[in-house]
Design goal:
Pfam families: MCU. The protein is of the alpha+beta class. It has three helices and five strands, in the order ββαβαββα. 46% of the residues lie in helices and 19% in strands. The strands form two sheets. Strands 3-4-5 form a three-stranded antiparallel beta sheet, with helices on one face. It is elongated.
Length: 139
Amino acid sequence: MGLPQITVPLPSRRERCRFTLRPISNTVGDFHEMLKKEDRGIDRVVCKTVDDTRIASSTTIETLLQENFKLLINDNSYNVESPKQERLTTEEVQKLGDVQALVSQLYEALHVKEHELQKEVELNTQLETLRQELVPLEE
């Protein structure tokens, strides 16, 4: 499952354009700005609920996509059907937590080996330098 995409008919170009949205970091206001940037002929963009309640610009895309909504561009209104949200069960969340813990342990184990190898190279370099300094003293 990737990022949500919305295909919107642009009024000036009379063509459709697909916008990819980030559910957590993008807001409705960001979406409006993307539309206006793509088509300079867009003067007014508003998102409303199905019962015509305006959706605030600060609302996250994740929240916007929880229900169907209306997208008003200039004088045109488009009904947007949101994809059905699949919620994770408690068991699935637990499994994800277990996987996350295993990945963390693996990273730590690999990182320790990497650190040990780096230290070994460092100590061998010091040993080589000391041996070179010792040669004149032994003579």
